[in-house]
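Example 5.3 — Phosphoesterase
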Amino acid sequence: MPVSLVFTSDTHVPKRARDLPHSLWDAIVSSDVVVHAGDWVDVALLDLLEERSRRLVAVYGNNDHGALRERLPGVARAEIEGVRFAVVHETGDAKGRELRCAARFPDTDVLVFGHSHIPWDTTAPTGLRLLNPGSPTDRRRQPHGTFVTAVADAGQLRDVVFHAVPPRS
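Solution (predicted structure tokens):
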């Protein structure tokens, strides 16, 4: 049975934004699984996502301390509808990323990561797909913030869509 997914990272609430964008909250409450690749900054957002998500797969990032590191792992793994996921915050430099990550996660179909705030969707020669949803709250050098929706179905990740987050007015 198809499972709807939301991928996000680098939310930095309340440092970069007071809250997540409405479009991301809408996606979160309507999805089956939410994946967060770290840099929450405040445990209050983790509490809200746990409350509003049907299922949450998440890690801490380099800006997460205290209760966030106590409650979240540095690496998370989940098999969802036959797709093997791993989640980390940092993968290192973009140069050589696919080969490094394929060696580190050989039994993974999709690696979700964050840290750079730069949307990324590539596939390593081994078939490992690497997804960075960007940041919905801190676009840095990107034209807009982003998050990703997708569907896991019968061992395949499909309907991967990067959603632009409108700038706050």
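Remark. Helices lie at 22-30, 43-52, 67-71, 97-104.
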